[in-house]
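Incident log, structure service

09:12 report received: a user says their structure output differs between two submissions of the same chain.
09:20 pulled the input from the user's history:
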Amino acid sequence: MMRVRLHFTGRVQGVGFRYFAQMNASQFNVTGWVKNMYDGSVTAEAQGTKKQIESFIEAMKHGHRFMRIDHMTAEECPVLQGEKDFKVKY
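09:34 re-ran on a clean worker, output below:
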């Protein structure tokens, strides 16, 4: 089990990015959260097996036609025990 903090910049707000992340998290059985930041970027934490996380990140990179990721960073962070779902934070 691993957890990563992801940070996305580009056209990532106002285009359904958080719900796209939630849909992909559900598809790959990833838990965590996603949140719009005040600077126009989006931050997320995703937790699962290495394969699940890799699949989630790859799906996010491909995105959909309304969003555009200019830059993405990923760093490992501590696993949260007992987390059961992936939430959109406000």
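09:41 both user submissions now match this output. Likely a transient worker issue. Closing.
09:42 reviewer note: The chain has a mean pLDDT of 97. The first strand starts at residue 2 and ends at 11.
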